[in-house]
Amino acid sequence: MCGGGAVAAVLLLAEKAGRPKVEILGRTDSSGFGGPVVGYLAAAVLSGAGPAEEEFTLTPEEKADLLKMARKAVTEFVERRSAVEDRSGRARFQEPRGAFVTLTKGGSLRGCIGFIEPVLPLSQAVIRAAIYAATEDARFPPVAAAELKNLTVEISVLTPAREITNPRLITVGKHGLIVEKGGRKGILLPQVPVENNWDRETFLEQASLKAGLPRDAWRRGAKLSVFEAIVFHE
What we know:
This protein is of the alpha+beta class. The chain has helices at 4-17, 60-80, 122-135, 191-195, 200-210; strands at residues 21-29, 39-46, 98-105, 108-115, 151-158, 162-164, 176-181, 184-188, 223-227, 229-233.
């Protein structure tokens, strides 16, 4: 490839800039016929559209309120089949955010469900995810009232997911991972590879398997997206 070094340099700089957009302006070849030709491509590498989103944070008090909300949601639904509402009055809880609730019992997973996209206000996402984790996770039977006192609640509040084309951009311990292909999707939270002592490749393989795909699907055309999370627990 003529000019391969220059192209590689531009792509490397674009990658470091984060979320670049490549727009193809035109392409042609030297002859218009098949066979060996000289090809020409004009493209623009643009930085991400718009300003970066302001970093989302939660205070210790806000985290404590969300944990209490999640536990109350599980308790009320399991014991009385009743719903709870967010009465905190916190404006931050009304911002749309993706969120997952993870329930553990004796250190073992008991349920984990959530919303990857910010389709609900944060408090509602936490309340619903908590109930679904306790009652709808197909890997486990619904939580019984007798189990409630032995459960530990963990919440992950997510940043919006962004697609990546280079798996080397994944940082274990920082990024959650989404692998998608053929209508199948596997999602793993950032803390999962850390808890299981996985390296990047194992993380990619496990996310592929969770999607119901071959373990090497991430190498074979699957869409890869990453996100970050604020993770806290009781």
